[in-house]
Amino acid sequence: MDCVSEVLSGEATHQPRWFGSLGAPQALQERLAERAQDVPAVKAETDVAIETRDLHVYYGKNHALKGINITFYKNEITALIGPSGCGKSTYLRSLNRMNDTIPTAKTTGHILLNGEDLNRPDIDVWALRKRVGMVFQRPNPFNKSIYENIAFAPRFHGIKKKSTLDDVVEEALRRAALWDEVKDRLHESAFALSGGQQQRLCIARALAIEPDVLLLDEPAAALDPISTAKIEELLLDLKKRYTVIIVTHNMQQAARISDRTAFFYEGELIEYNPTHKLFTNPDKQATEDYVSGRFG
Amino acid sequence: MNAKIADRIATAVFVLIALLLVFILVGLVGYLMWRGLPHISWHFLTSPPAFSEAGGGIGPQLFNSIYVLFLTMLLTVPIGVGGGIFLAEYAGDGWLTRFLRSAIEVLSSLPSIVVGLFGLLVFVQYTGWGYTILGGALALMLFNLPLMVRTSEEAIRSVPRDQKEASLALGVSHWRTITSVLLPSALPGIVTGAILTAGRAFGEAAALMFTAGMSSSRVDFTDWNPFSPLSPLNPMRSGETLAVNIWKVSSEGLVPDAREIAAGASALLVIVVLVFNLLARFLSRWLYKKMTASSS
Ligand SMILES: Nc1ncnc2c1ncn2[C@@H]1O[C@H](COP(=O)(O)OP(=O)(O)OP(=O)(O)O)[C@@H](O)[C@H]1O
Ligand SMILES: [Mg+2]
């Protein structure tokens, strides 16, 4: 019996790190088992949202990602885990070509969204980033009002009519579960919001441009447990409409909300599997060592 | 000697230095005011200078100072901010950028008298304009551009990178990101640069003596068409400024009240510069609010 399921059945001699102090192992185990039925190892071609083939990223001479192949499915949450510096953020940022903004970064390979290769040099990156939205680790609202934070990008992308913009703002805030908290102060500075509210505002801002895929780089790392729980709940709701890819250092979080998990180590993809399998019965020894807290 | 005593001594020294600075400032301004204020009257501010008898004013010089300043800012701020944007956002690390930076460095360390002589060669003699207000403004632009470029660049660079990334990740173009996200946040810094520039321009004498000239041409304050030769707004007439006038009357003034005129003009100069400071501060705060708040 492998180490992780030992822990789950309460026979462990040591507690893996990802249980933390919050975890009710029993509930988590049930949750993982429950989800096992819903997540087949492979889905149909029509369910594919975005995939990368042989994706390499270099920062100057530093070979940060070494040929990553992952297929992400529609309406699923996929978690990217791995020790610090293994390339999770780099991978996420390559999906919407944000690495282009780093002069030393070079990306080779294919990123396929609806069969279109996003890594071709002639692709319109502005239009692409509209389809692949991104939320960062630290909440980074603009130095503008709450309303303007959300209306800014849709206006740039061509929505000029005030009433339409109002609708877009309201809809985005509702989807990010923030509307009720801010509807009376839309024109106040976004900096007056709490950290958790700011992060949900950043999610709303990304949703306002109607992306197909939502990328989140440790979106709850700077937040308290209650705000984190709200974000997790929100993501579970959002996957009904979007494809969600999330980087997290929190094993519990990955286990709680994701359908699939990809484990990165030193720029390589070690294992990509449905979350329940990766956490309870991983294919690779390294994965087991990592999720059980033996290194990382 | 123990740490506590050392700390006390250091504190005392710093307080002394601070007091000395305040004392110098208050003493200087106080002395100038005490000497100059009694001579400032409506008559002094509005009448033209006298040739040999007492009782002349500085009206045209005051107007020329403001007009030269206005033209200088009109030239310096757009070009300076443009240069700052280029260096902060577009310039790579190539030899051209390095060359540009050292050129700016050299230009900013040139003494103003050298800039004045260069202006004499180019804007007075080469162009055949003679002494003109425009030539003076161009010389002052050369003198102030490095400062304006550098403060703008610094202000833009000091905007947190996550603000820029947030905007780019929403598919907003680089240029729109600069104008709508970076510049509003950088505005206070840019306005500070503009204040410094304005103060330097208003008080500058050496760069103007040989470009805008040391005499004020006859002007008709009822004619405001910039193209008519007698108009105060005609940029192609010679125009002695306040600072040049102070230098002239105190070094070679023929009027019996030359000392009083110089004192009055100095006090006026200080007052105007202080007023500029306050105004610019107010303006920057107002602009900042306007640009960051919702536009609806
Ligand atoms: N802007 C950059 N310039 C140069 N090298 C970089 C840059 N960003 C990341 N790297 C390098 O790429 C590698 C992967 O970094 P990345 O940020 O993707 O790791 P990560 O898995 O997100 O780590 P963490 O969990 O700490 O966020 C590291 O070796 C890092 O030093
Ligand atoms: Mg990271």
UniProtKB/TrEMBL annotation, chain B:
<keyword id="KW-1003">Cell membrane</keyword>
<feature type="domain" description="ABC transmembrane type-1">
    <location>
        <begin position="62"/>
        <end position="280"/>
    </location>
</feature>
<keyword id="KW-0813">Transport</keyword>
<keyword id="KW-0472">Membrane</keyword>
<feature type="transmembrane region" description="Helical">
    <location>
        <begin position="103"/>
        <end position="123"/>
    </location>
</feature>
<comment type="similarity">
    <text>Belongs to the binding-protein-dependent transport system permease family. CysTW subfamily.</text>
</comment>
<keyword id="KW-0812">Transmembrane</keyword>
<feature type="transmembrane region" description="Helical">
    <location>
        <begin position="12"/>
        <end position="34"/>
    </location>
</feature>
<dbReference type="InterPro" id="IPR005672">
    <property type="entry name" value="Phosphate_PstA"/>
</dbReference>
<feature type="transmembrane region" description="Helical">
    <location>
        <begin position="66"/>
        <end position="91"/>
    </location>
</feature>
<protein>
    <recommendedName>
        <fullName>Phosphate transport system permease protein PstA</fullName>
    </recommendedName>
</protein>
<dbReference type="Pfam" id="PF00528">
    <property type="entry name" value="BPD_transp_1"/>
</dbReference>
<dbReference type="GO" id="GO:0035435">
    <property type="term" value="P:phosphate ion transmembrane transport"/>
</dbReference>
<feature type="transmembrane region" description="Helical">
    <location>
        <begin position="129"/>
        <end position="149"/>
    </location>
</feature>
<dbReference type="InterPro" id="IPR000515">
    <property type="entry name" value="MetI-like"/>
</dbReference>
<dbReference type="GO" id="GO:0005886">
    <property type="term" value="C:plasma membrane"/>
</dbReference>
<feature type="transmembrane region" description="Helical">
    <location>
        <begin position="181"/>
        <end position="202"/>
    </location>
</feature>
<dbReference type="GO" id="GO:0005315">
    <property type="term" value="F:phosphate transmembrane transporter activity"/>
</dbReference>
<feature type="transmembrane region" description="Helical">
    <location>
        <begin position="261"/>
        <end position="280"/>
    </location>
</feature>
<dbReference type="InterPro" id="IPR035906">
    <property type="entry name" value="MetI-like_sf"/>
</dbReference>
<keyword id="KW-1133">Transmembrane helix</keyword>
